Amino acid sequence: MTVADLNPKYTWAEGDDAPLGTNPPEIQAKVPHPMRDSRFVPKERYYSREVFELEKKHLWPHTWLMAAREEELPNPGDYVEYEIAGTSVLLVRQRDHSIKALHNACRHRATELVKGQGRLPGGQLVCPFHGWRWNLDGSSSFVFGEKAFEPACLNKDDLALRECLVETWAGMVWINMDLGARPLAEHLSPVQQLLDPLGIGNMRVKWWKQVVLNANWKMAQEAFFEGYHVTQTHPQLLMGNDEEYGEKKAEQVAYTTFKNGHARFQSASKGEKEYEPVFDSEEFIEAGRLLATGQDAMTLEQDVRIFEGLRNKIPQDDPKFTQHAIAALYDYAQGAGIPMAPMGPAMQLWGGDIYMFPNYLMLPMYGNCLAYRSRPYKDDPEWCIFDVWSLTTYPVGQEPERAELKGIFDKDDTENWGLIPRQDFSNIERQQRGLHSPGFTESRLSSAYELSISNMHEELDRVIASRVE
């Protein structure tokens, strides 16, 4: 029996984009608590120190990571620190506006050079311990008390800060610590091609926040791999309707898993037609308002005002109200100089999700996007730091100059998190606690909604096994 037999709305990509599925015994033998069946995930994968150490050694240093937004370092001399699993990397904007990624460790005695985000005075990285200095490109520019060192300690090439691979795509800076890694485009295939038609390269940061969660980094991001949880977790999004309504909504979502561990969910296909969602006018407006007030992302207050402006222009029972609303949004954008992506089949991803292995997700909607990134926190497999971005498309020439982290906020902070993320955060920590119950041994996954989770775990096993002796 195939996945398609179980649920025609869940598909595995075909041809070169097809996922590899369950791993053979020789791969399973190389990893602890391996994935042996795509329907079940051993609970130890979320808290085992052995698994966590293998991820530190064989995953994070050898995969492409979304390290920063380009607008975090807009000018030459700007830097931002990216930290993951105890490794600190500095992204530095060069004088030619390219970006270099440098390991954040003095070549003298390992002191971290800078922290956080800022601008390098005089275009120099300066060690706060003994004053050794480096140029923006990581080349050595000054050694204090040079005469006190033997020549073998002062080889210019050896004094240069160690580099990572860097590539940029759609306003994002990606790094790979493995200098022999394949190109970013190969790693992101095919999801990069799915996102490009949505204009995400035109989007900029509206706000950026972080939360620390008592949960494994995988547990935190898996909550967003499916829309199956909406009925129970976000009942307000049902707008007063019952579970039967919620189940019908869930059935309108199509899921696809890809090679490289990536995945997608989106509105179910309607053949070759363009994206044509059908909503009652009030349902459509109210759904937009719930998103705008509940998370200030994907659908924004400005979008809702445009939709509300149609109330007295388009009959409420017009079956094409949604199409009129989207057309009004595009008309507004054209007048305001906002570069929206062309209308087309890619709009099926609006309200959906693209997951990019190992730890980054994008949820596009109109000219906006919600983005998530999950990373281990303080060398503990049961804690993670979770980044949340609200992205939007600004009028040309009116983009914010620099994106900065607004802060790290408690998961229950009602001033900084809307209702929707607070609901999600609560479930994530409850899941992590439940793993330790003697009455629980493994997650059991729906073949209709949740195989993106097993696809990620199977890819993780392949990555680790490929480097284990």
TrEMBL record:
Tagged with keyword Transmembrane? no
Q: Which cofactor does it need?
A: Fe cation
Which PROSITE patterns does the entry link to? Answer: RIESKE
Q: Which UniProt keywords are given for this protein, alphabetically ordered?
A: 2Fe-2S, Iron, Iron-sulfur, Metal-binding, Oxidoreductase
Q: Name one Pfam family in it.
A: Ring_hydroxyl_A
Domain named Rieske is located at 64-175
Q: What is this protein called?
A: Rieske domain-containing protein
